[in-house]
Design a protein that fits this description.
There is one protein chain. The protein is an alpha/beta fold and 245 residues long. It contains 9 helices and 12 strands. The protein is globular, with a radius of gyration of 18 Å.
């Protein structure tokens, strides 16, 4: 049984079908990738899994650890251990980094908060008293958000475009954090159209036009990047690999 099971999941927004009958199982304690071109429905699927407002009027079902969560709110799903790292992390005016990480931490001690920052490559002495606002770069906010997730000790983490807006050093820290999450028993789903992120995963799902059209080992799915297109029934055939990379 997968930690997360989607059963014929369908979602329409604005009269348009965005997710189209998705059925898949996410195996526990692995790092998965959900890949596909822009507009494939990856981020919409993530928003539906965590239960964001506007993404809950679905057909089908979502099961977490064998029980349906379709009727649960974002907060209720979070309490079960489901969380998400956003492509563009939020700013929280008035909160320090220490307060932000402590808010969701299972262990709220200073030692745990400092350890979480160390794990993402940020020196606690330089960051704990800083505000989570526009004075932080996008990459810094992304790493601070990931530190907060490490301190939460969740069961399932969805990461939306983990490589967006950060440098190579920061990205490697994110990959290390993902491995730490796995070693602590969590399951990670990296939502991406990046070949580099895909290669840091153990298993992958390929999306196009709101459908999961293939799944398997990373080497198998990586081949679609090299072929510059995806094997689906969409009439638009892109001209360059950059569309997907």
């Amino acid at each position: 049984m997968g930690i997360l099971e989607l059963r014929n999941l369908t979602l329409e927004l604005g009269g348009r079908r965005i997710l189209n009958g998705i059925t898949l199982d996410i195996w526990p304690n692995r790092i998965h990738a959900l890949i596909g071109p822009n507009g494939a429905g990856k981020s919409t699927l993530a928003s539906t899994i965590i239960g964001l407002a506007g993404f809950r009027k679905i057909e089908g079902d979502i099961l977490f650890e064998g029980a349906s969560i379709t009727g649960l709110s974002v907060d209720q799903r979070a309490r079960l251990g489901i969380t998400m790292a956003w492509q563009e992390p939020a700013r929280f005016e008035g909160l320090t980094v220490r307060q932000f990480i402590r808010a969701g931490a299972r262990d709220k001690s200073n030692a745990r908060i400092e350890a979480a920052l160390d794990q993402v490559g940020l020196e606690p002495a330089k960051y704990l008293t800083r505000a989570v606002d526009k004075t932080l770069s996008g990459g810094e906010r992304k790493r601070i958000e990931l530190a907060s997730i490490l301190a939460m000790e969740p069961k399932l983490v969805l990461m939306d475009e983990p490589d967006s807006g950060i440098d190579v050093e920061a990205l490697e820290k994110i990959f290390e954090a993902n491995r730490t999450l796995k070693s602590n028993g969590a399951t990670v789903i990296q939502i991406t159209h990046s070949l580099a992120v895909l290669r840091q995963s153990e298993h992958a799902f390929l999306m196009c036009c709101g459908k999961v059209i293939d799944k398997g080992e990373v080497g198998k799915i990586a081949g679609y990047f090299e072929n510059k297109c995806l094997p689906c029934d969409h009439t638009n055939v892109p001209a360059a690999a950059e569309e997907f990379l």
